[in-house]
Amino acid sequence: MNVAPIDATDLADWAVRLYDEYLRRPDLIRPATWARLERRPAGHLLDDPERIEDHKLSAIAESQAAGQVRRGDAFDVMAMVIAMSGAWSPVSMFTQRPAQEPPELHQQRRSLLRESVRRAMTADQWNLCPLQPNACQPCAFATARSRLTSRFARFSAAVSGLLRDTCATAHPGRPCRRGTVSAR
């Protein structure tokens, strides 16, 4: 059963639609949880997972290849989105929030879920090439930018250490104020 068809170009929206289905139809998720606990404690929950999951995994893989979804195993990406969407479901390990709660609480959760999935699953824009944004691997430009950022971080740490040392020499026995030398 595919109660919330996947849109791999917008996994955040898919997560929110799953959340809404869990609220609307708690009967859909309870039997799956029972089956996991009693019948299939390990491995795939379904007898024929390919039939249910192949189109979802293909859609995620296509979005990854297009640079829209972060790198990683497509199954793991799907599992993470489904887990995040079920955080407040009737079978959550943390808390169960029924549909009868005030609508504004559900809207807050939808917003948090949407933003969290978007941030977690959107392709890492920092490592994408500005000339070829759909490239699967970081290009030379992105690699050089990453190295430069790393070198700047090391330089910044070295300067902070130097300032602390200078402050300690100029003001023995007094703590340095945020790594800067106080003006006299």
From TrEMBL:
InterPro entries, alphabetized: Sco4008_C (IPR041467), Tet_transcr_reg_TetR-rel_C_sf (IPR036271)
Gene3D superfamilies for this protein: Tetracycline Repressor, domain 2 (1.10.357.10)
Signal peptide as annotated in the record: none
Residue ranges annotated for the HTH-type transcriptional repressor Sco4008 C-terminal domain, each copy included: 10-119
Pfam families: TetR_C_21 (PF17926)
UniProt-recorded name of the protein: HTH-type transcriptional repressor Sco4008 C-terminal domain-containing protein
